[in-house]
Amino acid sequence: MAKNQDSYQCTECGWTSTRWVGRCGECQAWGTVVERGAPKLKSVASSTPTDRAMPISQVPSDSARRKPTTIAELDRVLGGGLVPGAVVLLAGEPGVGKSTLLLDVAAKWARTGATTLYISGEESASQVKLRAERTGTVADTLYLASENDLGTVLGHIEQVHPSLLVLDSVQTITTAEADGAAGGPTQVKEITGALARIAKRESMAVIIVGHVTKDGGIAGPRTLEHLVDVVLGFDGDRHSGFRMVRATKNRFGPADEVGCFEMSETGIVEVPDPSGLFMTSHADPTPGTCVTVTLQGRRPLLAEIQALVTDAAGNPRRATHGLEGSRIAMVMAVLDRGLGLKLSTKDVYASTVGGAKVADPSADLATAVAIASACTGVPPLERTVALGEVGLAGDLRRVPGVERRLVEAARLGFQLAIIPSGSRDVTQKVPALGRMRVVEVPTLAEALTRIGLAG
């Protein structure tokens, strides 16, 4: 029997098509075009519920108490630990260390006496054990299996009865109950749904490894993120050992926390105080450097911005690393037009230290200070931190989270903080600043004067 003319529809925007396509022609979303199902039922018969509804104040919550993973940085992102029955999706680029991190999580979970099951769809059990021996993550109650069939995975769960299941990865598992190849939208949706159901039924925490696309998004249908309880992103620069775990969705805790790790030869380790990774120690004040405090979620991190300005041999070059090129161009235009720094004939290079990626507008002032210092050859005042967003008129705008930023700078021994005007009512409420002097300035020109770069 022939199908109707528009038998495929996008679940995001409702766009219809006569054939299936991987990308919606209207909203450009991937994996959202599905075949229209059977005609809707006219009526649905009611059935007797198994459990009666009760007032929320009487619902027992003991079975949903979270359990720490004993990895403080991961617990910070999760909101204190794993909740029984929760499904966590951890996504990241190949080689970033997802399997190494989760093997460490599984081993430490097992060492508390809890049964843990690690299912690998990409490596054999022997290969996983080799990595476990190298990283010191061998535990007696940690069970390994290499499977690619969902039914067999469910069978392992029934035999072992784990309190934690790690599946690496969801794109390698298939089921005969769904169409398509491994990693396809239908397969991924069916497998994740099945694991979510058994996790709730058995009060078993589940961590699923997910792949990402070349654009950095989570591979698979968008409904994958709706099916799970927590979505974590694991990212970092391959050329540096620093890694970050970010929560983009968390039903049981904050969704703006960040955990810091470092990849080493013996595995992955926590970095409870990562600010030192993004700074260099100078014996004497150095031109072209300035320190700022960024916010990664709710976590303040110090970052050092360096700049180099030289005479251009031909067309001027602008190169950035770890900073947004558009914001650097805007700051340079303000310095050139408003402060008289002739940067239009100069090569300008701006970079962060330690591979940090800074997209916070509060780093505009530190960027301007670094470029102005490199252009004039005059170093800024020692132990100074600069915060503020630079406007096109050369004014400084307030930034959020000034309290946390200043407390972090004071803890690390900075003596002077340059911040935009209008923040005094905030800083007066922070008693932990110690001897650090906080100076408010309304414009970029005055900020450079206070830092010692202009007369």
TrEMBL record:
<dbReference type="InterPro" id="IPR003593">
    <property type="entry name" value="AAA+_ATPase"/>
</dbReference>
<feature type="binding site">
    <location>
        <begin position="92"/>
        <end position="99"/>
    </location>
    <ligand>
        <name>ATP</name>
    </ligand>
</feature>
<keyword id="KW-0378">Hydrolase</keyword>
<protein>
    <recommendedName>
        <fullName>DNA repair protein RadA</fullName>
    </recommendedName>
</protein>
<comment type="similarity">
    <text>Belongs to the RecA family. RadA subfamily.</text>
</comment>
<keyword id="KW-0234">DNA repair</keyword>
<keyword id="KW-0863">Zinc-finger</keyword>
<dbReference type="InterPro" id="IPR014721">
    <property type="entry name" value="Ribsml_uS5_D2-typ_fold_subgr"/>
</dbReference>
<dbReference type="InterPro" id="IPR004504">
    <property type="entry name" value="DNA_repair_RadA"/>
</dbReference>
<feature type="region of interest" description="Lon-protease-like">
    <location>
        <begin position="347"/>
        <end position="455"/>
    </location>
</feature>
<dbReference type="InterPro" id="IPR027417">
    <property type="entry name" value="P-loop_NTPase"/>
</dbReference>
<dbReference type="InterPro" id="IPR041166">
    <property type="entry name" value="Rubredoxin_2"/>
</dbReference>
<dbReference type="InterPro" id="IPR020588">
    <property type="entry name" value="RecA_ATP-bd"/>
</dbReference>
<keyword id="KW-0862">Zinc</keyword>
<dbReference type="Pfam" id="PF13481">
    <property type="entry name" value="AAA_25"/>
</dbReference>
<dbReference type="InterPro" id="IPR020568">
    <property type="entry name" value="Ribosomal_Su5_D2-typ_SF"/>
</dbReference>
<keyword id="KW-0547">Nucleotide-binding</keyword>
<keyword id="KW-0067">ATP-binding</keyword>
<keyword id="KW-0238">DNA-binding</keyword>
<dbReference type="Pfam" id="PF13541">
    <property type="entry name" value="ChlI"/>
</dbReference>
<feature type="region of interest" description="Disordered">
    <location>
        <begin position="42"/>
        <end position="67"/>
    </location>
</feature>
<dbReference type="Pfam" id="PF18073">
    <property type="entry name" value="Zn_ribbon_LapB"/>
</dbReference>
<keyword id="KW-0479">Metal-binding</keyword>
<keyword id="KW-0346">Stress response</keyword>
<comment type="function">
    <text>DNA-dependent ATPase involved in processing of recombination intermediates, plays a role in repairing DNA breaks. Stimulates the branch migration of RecA-mediated strand transfer reactions, allowing the 3' invading strand to extend heteroduplex DNA faster. Binds ssDNA in the presence of ADP but not other nucleotides, has ATPase activity that is stimulated by ssDNA and various branched DNA structures, but inhibited by SSB. Does not have RecA's homology-searching function.</text>
</comment>
<comment type="function">
    <text>Plays a role in repairing double-strand DNA breaks, probably involving stabilizing or processing branched DNA or blocked replication forks.</text>
</comment>
<feature type="short sequence motif" description="RadA KNRFG motif">
    <location>
        <begin position="249"/>
        <end position="253"/>
    </location>
</feature>
<feature type="domain" description="RecA family profile 1">
    <location>
        <begin position="63"/>
        <end position="212"/>
    </location>
</feature>
<keyword id="KW-0227">DNA damage</keyword>
